């Protein structure tokens, strides 16, 4: 901008010629310049005020329009709504290996209230309390007659309950669409499925999320629209699972046990065909976790995966198999099991203080000799024992596809001494879950390869890491077969199906230290058919007591073995295993030539 000089030379000279004061010219120019500056400032201020006014007008118009829209729509609960975020309620189904539904979705409704629209709030509160006995009528009256504009009454209601609420005829009671998770088989496979609940919620939709089990482990996959309507296919067999749970519940009752667990696993693919933990729950109405006491007392506790126990003599076959693999013994090697035997200053005894004398390696398993297994463990040594048990997965949680599996980490000794090696060889001093045991026995059953258990269906065998030779695994299977045919698991014989296995009875530890005198964990680990194993079955009973005799019996041979035998009897035909029928000998008939 070109500014006019305050004392222009031409005017100054002209003013001097006329005898005028030149300073008057400067004062006049200053006045004119100030008037121009004032005019420009006024125009700038007026423009700013105009722009600000337009902005205020638009802002108030937007707020007013939004208020009008809200006034014409149903309110959403403020804490549950998310502005601009779409709630995806659709969730994929979960099915068993044959496509049968384990978890699906069900369209229902929620019930909420707008108290300001109610005509007779007291009558509505009384009627709702009759329909929903868990509601407090007095509290409903306070909410309906107070200042609240919105409140949830029930997040999920049945069609019958919806009709009953309709019949009340109260305009302030309204319904919102809901999609809830439905488990049509009730308690069946409850610990595998876990359960689902609501995440973000609004009046017109609710987000269904997994809260436990496989629902939580695969939560993102089940909610991902990219998978469309494709269900999540599990390795479970619904009919086998039902039979396993039914027999296990009966055995738990007959044996007066506090709890029970069972794992049925394919030894070649690692598929879990059935897995059960009792007591259980209904995932349609999942109970709340315990806030005090022992977590194992809750029906939510998965004994098959989370429960880590000393599993007793079921571990002996691992020690024998390792010794055979190392070339220290064979099936016929004689071991002196006579007492006394002391390791690290502690005595090593036998069940009921028996003294078996000299036994072959095979007979040590058949008679379940602690001293015999312990002496073999000393030959192996603590370092090599640790390496072998680690290769069987007994140092880490099992990689199973449920969220609770990460909590089932085995409990190991702080110092692995000779005494630890001896006691661990017969299942004391190291605590693991029944699922760990099933995976270890699967390695013996399938010819020596360690495979990972899985809850997802597989169409081909796993090529796991080799942990023992086929000949060692075959020798171990022959010993397990003898345990059932002539050893401590004679009640495990199932006509038509050659069963092999090992019993384990471990004293139950006290929370404050030491062991109970009259409480045990009884376990039977079985493989069948023993000549060509297809499946491994582990049954564990917590504090069983068999009372049919003159005095109570708690050992696995009397408790866990009969339950496992009944499970095999029920499920073997369902698994497509044909019984081997031995022809009867003909008597009184003489063969003559034609």
Key terms for this structure?
Beta-lactamase; 17 helices; alpha+beta; Penicillin-binding protein 2a (Domain 2); 594 residues
Please give the structural blueprint.
Layout: H1 9-18, H2 22-71, E1 94-95, E2 101-113, H3 121-131, H4 137-145, E3 151-157, H5 159-168, E4 173-182, H6 190-193, E5 195-201, E6 206-212, H7 213-217, H8 219-223, E7 232-233, H9 238-254, E8 259-266, E9 272-278, H10 316-325, E10 334-336, E11 342-343, E12 346-347, E13 358-360, H11 361-367, H12 370-380, H13 382-391, H14 418-425, H15 434-445, E14 449-450, E15 465-466, H16 470-486, E16 500-509, E17 515-528, E18 535-542, H17 560-574
Helix pairs in contact: 3-4, 3-5, 9-17, 10-12, 10-16, 11-16, 12-14
Radius of gyration, CA atoms, in whole angstroms: 39 Å
Strand residue content: 15-25%
The major sheet is characterized as: 5 strands, mixed
CATH architecture of the largest domain: 3-Layer(aba) Sandwich
Regarding quaternary structure, what we see is: single chain
The SS-based structural class is: alpha+beta
Separation of termini?
A: 139 Å
What is the CATH homologous superfamily assignment of the largest domain?
DD-peptidase/beta-lactamase superfamily
At the first level of CATH, the class of the largest domain is Alpha Beta
Overall domain count: 3
* Overall pLDDT metric: 89
Treating each run of at least 4 consecutive H or I residues as one helix, how many helices? 17
**Under CATH, the topology of the largest domain is which?**
Beta-lactamase
Overall spatial form:
elongated
E-strand count: 18
């Amino acid at each position: 901008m070109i500014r006019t000089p305050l004392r222009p030379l031409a005017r100054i000279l002209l003013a001097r010629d006329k005898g005028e004061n030149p300073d008057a010219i400067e004062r006049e120019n200053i006045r004119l310049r100030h008037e121009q500056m004032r005019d420009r400032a006024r125009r700038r201020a007026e423009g700013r005020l105009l722009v600000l006014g337009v902005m205020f007008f638009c802002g108030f118009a937007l707020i007013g329009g939004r208020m009008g829209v809200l006034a014409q729509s149903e309110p959403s609960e403020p804490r549950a709504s998310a502005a601009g975020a779409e709630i995806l309620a659709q969730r994929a189904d979960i099915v068993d290996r044959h496509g049968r539904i384990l978890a699906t979705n069900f369209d229902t409704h929620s019930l909420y209230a707008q108290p300001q629209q109610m005509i007779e709030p007291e009558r509505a509160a009384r009627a709702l309390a009759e329909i929903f006995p868990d509601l407090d009528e007095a509290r409903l009256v306070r909410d309906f007659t107070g200042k609240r504009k919105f409140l949830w009454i029930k997040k999920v209601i049945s069609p019958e309950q919806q009709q009953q609420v309709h019949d009340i005829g109260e305009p302030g009671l309204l319904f919102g669409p809901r999609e809830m998770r439905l488990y049509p088989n009730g308690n069946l496979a409850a610990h595998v499925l876990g359960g689902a609940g609501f995440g973000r919620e609004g009046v017109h939709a609710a987000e269904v999320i997994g809260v436990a089990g496989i629902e939580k482990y695969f939560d993102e996959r089940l909610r991902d629209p990219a998978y469309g309507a494709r269900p999540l296919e599990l390795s479970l067999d619904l009919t086998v699972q039902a039979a396993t749970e039914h027999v296990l519940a009966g055995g738990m009752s007959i044996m007066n046990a506090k709890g029970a667990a069972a794992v049925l696993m394919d030894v070649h693919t690692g598929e879990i065909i059935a897995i059960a933990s009792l007591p259980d729950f209904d995932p349609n109405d999942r109970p709340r976790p315990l806030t005090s006491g022992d977590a194992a007392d809750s029906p939510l506790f998965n004994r098959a995966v989370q429960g880590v126990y000393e599993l007793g003599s079921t571990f002996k076959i691992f020690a024998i198999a390792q010794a055979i693999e190392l070339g220290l013994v064979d099936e016929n090697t004689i071991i002196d099991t006579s007492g006394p035997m002391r390791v690290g200053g502690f005595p090593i005894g036998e069940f009921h203080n028996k003294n078996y004398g000299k036994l072959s390696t095979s007979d040590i398993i058949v008679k379940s000799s602690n001293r015999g297994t312990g002496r073999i463990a000393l030959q192996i040594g603590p370092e090599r024992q640790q390496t072998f048990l680690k290769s069987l997965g007994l140092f880490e949680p099992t990689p199973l596809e449920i969220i609770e599996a990460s909590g089932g980490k085995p409990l190991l000794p702080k110092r692995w001494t000779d005494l630890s090696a001896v006691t661990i060889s017969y299942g004391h001093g190291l605590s693991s879950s029944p699922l760990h045991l099933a995976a270890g026995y699967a390695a013996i059953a399938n010819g020596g390869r360690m495979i990972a258990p899985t809850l997802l269906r597989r169409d081909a065998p796993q090529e796991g890491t080799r942990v023992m030779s086929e000949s060692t695994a075959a020798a171990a299977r022959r010993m397990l077969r003898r345990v059932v045919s002539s050893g401590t698991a004679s009640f495990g014989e199932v006509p038509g199906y050659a069963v092999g296995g090992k019993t384990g009875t471990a004293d139950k530890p006290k929370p404050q230290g030491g062991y109970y005198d009259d409480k045990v964990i009884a376990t039977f680990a079985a493989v069948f058919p023993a000549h060509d194993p297809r499946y491994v079955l582990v049954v564990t009973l917590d504090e069983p007591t068999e009372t049919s005799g003159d005095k109570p019996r708690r050992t696995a041979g009397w408790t866990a073995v009969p339950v496992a035998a009944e499970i095999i009897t029920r499920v073997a035909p369902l698994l497509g295993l044909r019984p081997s029928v031995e022809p009867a000998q003909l008597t009184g008939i003489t063969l003559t030539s034609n």
